[in-house]
Design goal:
elongated, mainly alpha, 150 residues, 2 strands, 7% strand, 3 domains, two-stranded antiparallel ribbon
Length: 150
């Protein structure tokens, strides 16, 4: 229920500084959470974070071990088993390391790579690969032709 008149901002800030529950402040003054925190920011009041639990610091070598396992192709579950860390902690470690939780999908070689492998040499910059039958999904070597640029 919105307030009928503009709330007294100093009273709201004072209530917040007295550590009154945010839900009570919101109900008393008819505010939404975003409005309350914007008001506090305008008054230079830092948010109370006493109830926020800080994450435990990483043990020496813990992040490196997670990174090593992930680079080796281990899944989140496998990393959990190998390190004894919980799922959330493993996911947080991967996020801090900038690594994906999912393994990288296998990439199919391009037709150019297939032909280079078959020829045993890299293609020249002017050479292109064409499909004889025009079907670009048919990557059999018998269907591929190397052409020089004209």
């Amino acid at each position: 229920m919105p307030a009928k008149h503009p709330p007294d901002e100093t009273a709201i800030v004072a209530a917040y500084r007295r550590n009154e529950p945010v839900s009570a402040i919101l109900a008393t003054y008819g505010l939404r959470p975003r409005s309350l925190y914007e008001l506090l920011r305008r008054h230079g009041v830092a948010p109370n974070r006493s109830s926020v639990v800080r994450a435990k610091a990483w043990a020496p070598g813990e992040l490196e071990r997670v990174a090593e396992l992930r680079r080796g192709g281990a899944s989140v579950d496998a990393i959990q088993l190998a390190t004894g860390l919980g799922r959330k902690r493993v996911r947080r470690a991967l996020a801090e390391l900038g690594m994906s939780e999912l393994p990288a999908p296998a990439r199919a070689p391009t037709v150019r790579e297939l032909v280079e492998q078959a020829l045993g040499r890299p293609l020249e910059p002017g050479e292109t690969v064409r499909h004889r039958n025009g079907d670009t999904s048919d990557n059999r070597l018998t269907n591929l032709i190397v052409r020089a640029k004209r």
